[in-house]
Design a protein that fits this description.
This protein is an alpha/beta fold and 136 residues long. The protein has a domain of 95 residues: Rossmann fold (3-Layer(aba) Sandwich). Helices cover 37% and strands 15% of the residues. Helix 1 links the parallel strand 1 and strand 2. 24% of the residues are buried.
């Protein structure tokens, strides 16, 4: 079985489906929404009005202890994992993981605009059936 980092955003509705399926198939999966022994990081834990921040406030918030702990949790999981599955929108994590030689797949269940640079990754998973065939 594999150690998998699922890279996504809080807004992506497919994230939970992918995490639960991979776990059900016996893989060790890091879920940034529910990391081991802590709660997932949210900007709202720092400030409920985070969506109104200016750049200075955002830069300062990156150094807040909760942001540092959330970053360290996610980044350590990226280093731990053998495979990254990017559920669209987490390009930084996927790019870093590919850059250090890890396997990266893009999950794209809906039709999206083609992205030439996805050629750098190891494949595009376009359906739940393909995910099942590859990881179950």
């Amino acid at each position: 079985m594999c150690k998998i980092y699922v890279a996504s955003s809080w807004r992506n509705e497919i994230h939970n489906i992918v995490v639960q399926a991979l776990q059900r198939w016996g893989h060790e999966v890091y879920d940034f929404k529910n990391p081991p022994s802590r709660t997932g990081f949210s900007w709202a834990h720092i400030d409920n009005k985070w969506q109104n921040w200016n750049t200075t406030q955002y830069r300062e918030a990156l150094n807040h202890p909760l942001a540092v702990a959330g970053f360290n949790s996610d980044f350590n999981a990226m280093k731990w994992a053998d495979i990254c599955i990017m559920v669209l929108s987490a390009h930084t994590e996927a790019g870093w993981m590919k850059g250090v030689g890890k396997v990266v797949y893009v999950v794209q269940f809906s039709t999206e605009q083609p992205e030439l640079m996805y050629k750098i990754y190891d494949g595009i998973i376009s359906s739940y059936d393909e995910l099942t065939k590859m990881f179950s």
